[in-house]
Design a protein that fits this description.
Largest sheet: 5 strands, parallel
Strand order of the largest sheet: 2-1-3-5-4
CATH superfamily: Sugar-phosphate isomerase, RpiB/LacA/LacB
CATH topology: Ribose 5-phosphate Isomerase B, Chain: A
CATH architecture: 3-Layer(aba) Sandwich
Structural class: alpha/beta
Strand content: 15-25%
Shape: globular
Number of strands: 5
Bound molecules: D-ribose
Distance between the termini: 33 Å
Order of helices and strands: EHEHEHEHEHH
Helix content: 40-55%
């Protein structure tokens, strides 16, 4: 399967259940999904899973990733330390859309204790369906790296 239909996903225990549901949702949409863990509701450190997903996007193995923790805060802090990663913590559809249009976000971060299942699915769908606008926004995102 092409890189554009492949996605890597990871969560900690606080969002394990939502990660599993999003995985199924993605597979049903025809995506190939790499699950970086965690694998149960046993307490873990979100940083381990955030680093796995962010590294895979940073080094180009995956074009897109999804990260989840309780609030999404720890995952976004972790992921945005990696070069070429633009992780967007979203809990509204407008931000999910704009994070693609203007910021070319390559990791969507969700808070499993913030969003319900239906909103989470809609956020994922919007994020995946929206293309980067490029143009003036390209220079801006490139300048994040320097
Ligand atoms: C786990 O209790 C919680 O701290 C974690 O899921 C996340 O919200 C951290 O930012």
């Amino acid at each position: 399967m092409g890189k554009d239909r492949s996605i890597i996903i990871g969560s900690d225990h606080a969002a394990y259940e939502l990660k599993e549901k999003i995985k199924t949702y993605l597979i049903d949409m025809g995506y190939s999904v790499e699950d970086a863990g965690t694998t149960s509701e046993a307490s873990v450190n979100y940083v381990e899973y955030g680093k796995k997903v962010a590294a895979a996007v940073s080094n180009g193995h995956y074009l897109k990733g999804i990260l989840l923790c309780g609030t999404g805060l720890g995952m976004s802090m972790t992921a945005n330390r990696f070069s070429n990663v633009r992780a967007a913590l979203c809990s509204d559809i407008f931000s999910a859309k704009m994070s693609r249009l203007h910021n070319d976000s390559n990791i969507l971060v969700l808070g499993g204790r913030i969003v319900g299942d239906i909103l989470a699915f809609a956020l994922v769908q919007t994020w995946l369906d929206t293309e980067f606008e490029g143009g003036r926004h390209l220079d801006r995102i490139q300048s994040i790296e320097h």
